[in-house]
Batch of 3 targets.
Target 1
Amino acid sequence: MITFDHVHFYYKKGQPVINNMSFTIGTGEFVAIVGSNGCGKSTIAKLMDGLLLPKKGSVTFNNLDTSRPTDLDMIHEHIGFVFQNPEDQFITTNVMDEVVFGMENIRVPREEIQSRLDHALRAVQMEDYLDSMPHQLSGGQKQRVAIAAIVAMRPQFIIFDEATSMLDPLGREHVLSIMHELHRLGMTIIHITHHMEEVLSAERILVIHEGRIEFDGNPLTFFETVDVKDYQLELPFAVRLYQMLYQSTSLMADWKEMIRIQWSIN
Ligand SMILES: Nc1ncnc2c1ncn2[C@@H]1O[C@H](COP(=O)(O)OP(=O)(O)OP(=O)(O)O)[C@@H](O)[C@H]1O
Ligand SMILES: [Mg+2]
């Protein structure tokens, strides 16, 4: 369980980025974190993993505290982090070493390394690229290798910080299905995204605005009850379509007009 207890954070004194934030994410949850550019999502992710430390309040993972240096190794072992740009996390020169490196870092027993490597690469369908150079792969393939490196470490929680934003729709769908598969296998998934369609498949949504939590609950309830424009967000296409059909049954008769309105910028 990750717990934020009255967390305050700033990069520059006098310019607060996280304001008195408290929440808990329990084991086995699938949580989406959304909000406009600069609202503090990546900062929250880095606070979770102990890459940043709160100025006030505490961030704990079970009974480990990110502000205790002796707890940080264990926290990194249990919380994996997939970044927006996979190149940021490549360290070695081939796919196999990339996945093995993370495991060696957390001292996975030597006899387990091969089977975890095979399993992780199969999970992301990259088993045929063992000897490839990470930098020569496509964006989607890089992202899959980055995910395999994390999966092989078997963390309890994985934070995806806009890990799908550089991918084409098929690549996004694939990474999203990997997230759901990992969730089904018992991992806790924290998915930071600007894609509202992806939010619909989460169990819980945290909406961040100016360093505060503005909504914490079921995504459908959020889209039904809150004016998303207040948070510079948009409704998922499915919800917009539903609302248009619901509001005006006559539109149903003229579906071409409905689609035209749906996509017109006014
Ligand atoms: N290293 C840093 N030094 C100083 N200010 C920073 C630093 N990183 C982020 N900030 C500032 O902190 C605020 C929150 O940034 P953060 O990266 O958490 O936003 P975000 O919600 O992840 O945005 P995005 O959707 O664009 O990724 C922003 O105002 C940003 O300019
Ligand atoms: Mg960010």
Target 2
Amino acid sequence: MLDQAKQLREKMIAKKTDGADRKSIKKTRVLAITSGKGGVGKSNFALNFGLGLVENDKKVLIFDVDLGFANIDVLLGRIPKETIASMIEKDLAVRDIIEKGPKGLLFISGGNGFNELFQMDDHKLHKFFQELATLQGEVDYIILDTGAGLSYENLRFILAADDVILVTTPEPTSITDAYSVVKMVHGKDPNVHMKLVVNQCTNSKEGQRTADNFKQVAEQFLDKEIGALGSIPNDSHVPEAVKKQEPLMLAYPNSESALAIRQIASEFLQLRVPYKLGLKGFIMKIFFK
Ligand SMILES: Nc1ncnc2c1ncn2[C@@H]1O[C@H](COP(=O)(O)OP(=O)(O)OP(=O)(O)O)[C@@H](O)[C@H]1O
Ligand SMILES: [Mg+2]
């Protein structure tokens, strides 16, 4: 594994300095959407937030890395021709598995069997991440829809991403689980940039209150600043869109929840967070940790 990792690093450094890698001038940020508790609305948020960025002329790729229960394709009502699992199995290029979603949104499906990613042999893992690296400069954002909780794989995705959006609901169980994620991540790397989104709020006051409390606790006990990007109301249009297998932003573009997500996307785009290493940094980190 270490030998493979060393080779990959050397190849990447060589590529960076040979002058041919001009595409890397355009930066690709990797953004992980995660949560402590499951079922809080990560996948719906990832998809619709991605569309919110597309509305702002950003090129976005959603990468479904929920290793057990990948379902972005289901939310889009699409049956992907290829998945990460089949890419690895059939030795395909990453471009062969990118699907075109609505409004130019791109996505990659996990597919069954993707949960073996980190147990793959070194050669396959090396090949997979090398393929992924070719997307550098092709898109503005890669959004990772992760699984819930603190699995080994999730932690690696979170620690390697440029930005992390932590989704919680106002329920105490969801908040304490989100806090556990912050504590664990902060313990491993205090520089991870995390923002909170409060989903399924009864009203905006509840969202604000939840975010304020969370911020205060993280500051007091971890000396970690976690600002909120905003809150999303509990809105029956979300499950309605799921049933129609159409993204909320397209099925109900003027619903309260779609407006809130649009607002969160524009809030996110106004953040001036220093760019870490983007896609290549993500791959390096995920491979070496
Ligand atoms: N703002 C909202 N208002 C009402 N229902 C919502 C809202 N957001 C999400 N939901 C509902 O919550 C359920 C879970 O959503 P979703 O699958 O996006 O969660 P998740 O966090 O990705 O779950 P998992 O942890 O299993 O991956 C869905 O049935 C969805 O319709
Ligand atoms: Mg999900």
Target 3
Amino acid sequence: MANLNRRHFLAATSGLVASALLPGAGLARAPQIGTTIPGWYRFPIGDIEATIISDGLLNLGSANDQFPAASPDTIASILKDEFLPVSPMMLEQNCLVLNIGERVVLLDSGMGRDAMFGDQSGRLLGNLSAAGIEPGQVDDIVLTHAHIDHCSGLVAADGTLNFPNAQLHMSQADFDFWTDEAKLSGEGSQPAFVKAARHNLLPYRDRLTFVTDKAEVLPGITAISTPGHTVGHTSYLISSGNQSFLNVGDVVHHYALLFENPGWAFAYDTDPNQAAETRIKLFDMAAAEQLPLIGYHFPFPGLGHIRREGQGFEYVPIPVRHG
Ligand SMILES: [Zn+2]
């Protein structure tokens, strides 16, 4: 009797499942939409209204190529624990807009039209507009550094400024290094990076201010010199009321690999040893002060804290809020 009932039940349910999956069976009339979450996220830092604008994803190929000094077995083991593939290693690009009251400030600007790291980037302008911010409203652009994935959203392919009313703020060391004509010839990715920096930075030359370590760039935004990834890489401490918030830029790229192993060299570091020293120093500070922060390349929207974990550190994402 029990077997008979079970057989009847299976027959009945398999019929239901089959009819639900059949096209035209009448249970799924609405078309699938195919889009994901909006490419922006808004949150407060004291009185500042902050909006993270995604420029989309970068495809960096195999993680083994990006961390050449690390053991492939260790990379594979960490990424397996995170349910991530070794290849492709995908990194987000989280640009940050700060409405500080008197000014609208954009930190970093993505890949623009450059497809060096795939076709899922270059979405800054579209996502800005979706977030209700027009390029003409941006008063200031602050760069962490002059790499191709941070400065390429500034100027359109035809040379037109994407942000016609904006002043540019960045370190002189990075401006001089990455716009240096002599570096247009050479090996590896450097010539392409220099070409992109020259295309995007030189048109802003007459509206450029250099930032200096520990000095206020704009009200509530203080530069922290964090060299190594590039010669003039700069992080920014943002303060409003009694709240502080850290924009680390590219002091760290991968949230799983480089927190556990902050000493690892990253392929695009200009000075990998200095980058590691800087990373550990900034992680120490952020962990000790329990600073909320944003990582440009962390999983969207890129907000979290750093805590000490064993010999290294750990990234703890801040849950997104709605309403
Ligand atoms: Zn970057």
